[in-house]
Amino acid sequence: MKKLINNVDDVVRDELEGVQLAHPHDVKVSLDPYYIYRADAPVQGKVAIVSGGGSGHEPMHGGFVGMGMLDAACPGEVFTSPTPDQMLEATKAVSSGAGVLHIVKNYTGDVLNFEMAADLARDEGIEVESVVIDDDVAVQDSLYTAGRRGVGATVLAEKICGAAAEQGRSLSEIADLCRKVNSQARSMGMALTSCTVPAAGNPTFELGDDEMEIGIGIHGEPGRERMKLKSSAEVVELLAGAILDDGVIDSGDNVLAFVNSMGGTPLIELYIVYRDLHRFLEGRGVTITRNLIGPYITSLEMQGVSITLLKLDDELTQLWDAPVKTPGLRWGA
Amino acid sequence: MTSVGLEDVLAWLREAAARIEEQREYLTQLDSAIGDADHGINMSRGFKAALERLDSNPPEDIAGVFKAVAMALIGKVGGASGPLYGTMFMEMGKAVDGKDRLDAADLAAAFRAGIDGIKARGKAEEGDKTMIDALEPAYAALQEAVASGGGVDVAVSAAAEAAARGMEATIPLVARKGRASYLGERSAGHQDPGATSSHLIIAAAAEAWGS
């Protein structure tokens, strides 16, 4: 394992200390328990938005704390859900009395820990709503699985709900909005290489030099199938094709296209993928009216890409365009 | 051995922590095949925290021990195992409230409450390729031993053997809960890490309380 770390056990702590030193005006960091929160929290009269999940997906979620997005984020150990005590403390730190929305990715650990945290917060008199994001079409959604994973749509939901919270909307309105984003967004990812969890020391899975994994999860969980490496255009057809096959996005729709690096794939390749995606969607009568391109929900150093498409209407477009000022996403402010 | 007291319960948990530490790499290796390669790391961190909590602030009774372990696991393990094992010990703590000693029937009742807690939170049933596949057979064996008048030592040995069989029986199963379920058919052929850690915890009781 080659990584720029000091000590395997200190990876998350050292990173959080770096975040605090880098962004002292925007965020504050609690080291016991771990959470990152807005420097000006709690914002009076505003619904607070809290998310969290395993570390290793940076900038998600900690990098999205700030004006127009999250009020707090709880990082777990690498690829491991955070714990209810973190979520409870974060919820209390940002609660202004207007209610708190928990945005949770659909992973068993995240869901169970956030459920416990919401129970604890309600016991302390804080109004909490939770919305589970499950946009990954690589996973069959049935009674026989844990359901679809929450991936790229999480970033979009956090941005859009954060903007709605700044406008002073109520907790139930923002929770409905979050469910709307989730219902109109679909994602699928792929990997060219594995990644190494620092504490494990070895790659999570083996992938041959000429192979790729289609439908990979953001923790290196294997996906739909492993196949020989294909061109960008062919990969786009597999990923975006599966997304369109899911039936939420149709010819005539306007979409936000989010081309995300898993961490190790450089921008030059992301733009090639974006070009191919643009052409593919054009051929299917779908128009990209907004885009996001870059590493926003990563899997450590994994090479690979995920595509998320969100069907846009005027409301979602306006909220997407609204100002945001966080370490990881910033415009109009 | 007809019953166990506070010291015996502590001895069990120390043995469980030692076994988990010993098998840390193995649990993580099992998890990397069908999960996300952190089960051993997380369980080891959780049980270390549980022992620290028991040493720094020794509980006065068995219920207190179970609750302290529950809080440590909930706070330190993360993933799905933290809330699930945490819930199990929490419910076991409630079930033994006020008892100074536990006979085999008390243990079976506490264990039942613990498993029900896990099932309520995780919504898993037998055959889903989870810790339940080791825990339910262990409970059945415990219950059978109680019915035939066996002592604690006999009962937990039977439970440990049943847990081992249940753990091995997860190998051909297709996972229906947790991250392994994302693999579908590809999850078959691998032993479930959760069932394996459950077996370790029960086997630790058989070791600690064996005659």
**CATH-defined superfamily of the largest domain in chain A:** Dihydroxyacetone kinase, domain 1
Which range does the strand content of chain B fall in? under 5%
Instruction: Please tell me the CATH architecture of the largest domain in chain A by its name.
Output: 3-Layer(aba) Sandwich
Principal-axes geometry of chain B comes out as: globular
Give me the count of strands of chain B.
2
Coarse structural class of chain B? mainly alpha
User: Within the CATH hierarchy, at the fold level, what is the topology of the largest domain in chain A?
Assistant: Rossmann fold
Instruction: Give the uncertain stretches of chain A in residue-range form.
Output: none
For the largest sheet of chain B, list the strands in their spatial order. 1-2
In the sheet with the most strands of chain A, the strands line up as: 1-2-4-3-5-6
What is the N-to-C succession of helices and strands of chain B? EHHHHHEHHHH
Overall pLDDT score of chain B = 95
- Amount of beta strand of chain A: 15-25%
Care to describe what's here?
The complex is a heterodimer of chains A (333) and B (211). Chain A is an alpha/beta fold and 333 residues long. Chain A has helices at residues 11-22, 84-94, 108-123, 153-166, 171-184, 232-245, 267-283, 314-321; strands spanning 27-31, 34-38, 48-55, 72-78, 100-105, 128-133, 185-191, 211-214, 225-228, 254-261, 287-294, 304-311, 324-325, 330-331. Chain A has 2 domains: 8-184 and 320-331, Dihydroxyacetone kinase, domain 1 (Rossmann fold, 3-Layer(aba) Sandwich), CATH 3.40.50.10440; 185-312, 2-Layer Sandwich (Hypothetical Protein Tm841, Chain: A,domain 3), CATH 3.30.1180.20. Chain A has 8 helices and 14 strands. The relative contact order of chain A is 0.15. The model of chain A has no long low-confidence stretch (mean pLDDT 95). By secondary structure, chain B is mainly α. In chain B, strands 1-2 form a two-stranded antiparallel ribbon.
